[in-house]
Fold:
Amino acid sequence: MTKARDEFSIISRYFSAIGDADPNTLLSVGDDAAVVDIPAQMQLVVSTDTLISGIHFPQETSAADIAYKALAVNLSDLAAMAADPAWFLLSLTLPHSDDDWLRPFADSLNQTAQQYGLELIGGDTCRGSLSVGIQIGGLVPAGQYITRKGASPGDLILVSGELGNAGLGLASIQHKIELPEALDATCRQALNRPRPRLQLQSFLRQFASAAIDISDGLQADLAHILKSSNCGATVYQDQLPVNQWIQQQAAYEYALNAGDDYEICCCIAAANETQIGRWNQDHPDCRLSVVGHITDSGYLLDNGESDVDLATVAAGYQHFD
Structure:
């Protein structure tokens, strides 16, 4: 194990030039704080997430995958709000200063930041149990951000991509299930390398009444929309976009409750239904599926046999259970 000398040499060696320089950044890494401009007619959207070893990623996860996921899950928050990424801050806690871990972590963080067009403008490094905290900032045209509040009875409920793959990947790593080899690789990739759905920004700004990213499972995260919007929902199990294994095993709990999907759940007025087909034709890699509709009250899962009251069953990952 090769050690960097101290936190300042770690910052200088690995984190002084991460991502693409943003023209709105006036002062970046190396001072007490960063200084950024907000362009005219734009609003700043800010979010933060912390990933802890053994909770948000298995302890054996590679440094490169940890760096990617730490940034991707924050980018997913911006995607749900229809904001364009601009910059981020990094708070990194390490048990020791291992160059063999820091090098692939920093390289992956830089590649991911460049891929999504944002810049590291500051942060902190300290010693302790491994955790990665990121605060991210994005920009949205004034008044065009999307929130969890705004869904109305009659709205369609949409989700992007496939649900449940990340949950299957984690269950496979934990030896709780055994998957076919190709599917196992796909699901582990979904767990370690979620894809923030930033391409949905224009669609959300034009058509969404409410949106949220699916981090704790569709059941729990859609419930946040329902609470904020003071309404209910019916979800149709046979319309959930899942892989064939989940269908064959009737293992829909992975799509509903496992979490870590980082897909987008949004609501749109039924009058805009034709826009879904147009979107899917132009964006087959980010397909939108109608999985239910907003109601006046209640929270039901139609599983083809008898409706399940989702409000009475366990939902999503809970940190303090």
Observations:
- The first strand starts at residue 25 and ends at 27.
- The chain has two domains: 7-141, 156-312.
- The mean pLDDT is 91.
